[in-house]
Amino acid sequence: xxxxxxxxxxxxxxxxxxxxxxxxxxxxxxxxxxxxxxxxxxxxxxxxxxxxxxxxxxxxxxxxxxx
Length: 67
Hints:
15% helix; DUF4177 domain-containing protein
């Protein structure tokens, strides 16, 4: 049986840190480091799928398997 995944993203700019997931949108603590944020979502079962670094933003795409 093929695995099924759900996806979420973390958007980070100079002014915002935003979590977008199937459950909704959440403004993240702007003082939290990227490592702290990734560790937090990793503890919830999310794993890093890709990341993109642009001139003004970083986008992390995460996935977790649906059982």
